[in-house]
Amino acid sequence: MHREKQVAARNYHVRKLDASPEQDFTEDVDQQLYQEVFWESFRQLDKVCQDILEGYLKETSPKDIAVKLGYSYGYVRKRKSMCHSFLMKTIENHPTYIKIKQTELTLDME
């Protein structure tokens, strides 16, 4: 039993040493940039889109979103789809997003 604990501890330390701090750093930076791109793009949406998508982000049901905003259930569902599509296009055309994607493609080719 003692031997098993030693092996498990050694394996844990090896995994910790194998984790590259540079890789973790760049992933953290990329994640932060993606969040900035998302929120910059989100703020470009009109107020109705922001309210509807915010409801979905908070995992509020479409029916509850409709009641809260004073719209029909069908309108909320249709508008959510349109707003989401516009948000995705805005993100994909954001200069920072494009730069990150180009960098990732370059690194994948190496």
Give the helix proportion (percent range).
over 70%
Mean pLDDT: 83
Order of helices and strands: HHHHHH
β-strand number: 0
Structure description:
The chain is an all-alpha fold and 110 residues long. It contains six helices and no strands. Helix 3 packs across helix 5 and helix 4 crosses helix 5.
Put the structure in a nutshell:
The chain has 110 residues and is an all-alpha fold.
Salient structural properties:
single chain; 110 residues; mainly alpha
Secondary structure layout plus pairing:
Layout: H1 2-18, H2 21-43, H3 47-57, H4 62-69, H5 73-92, H6 95-109
Helix pairs in contact: 2-5, 3-4, 3-5, 4-5
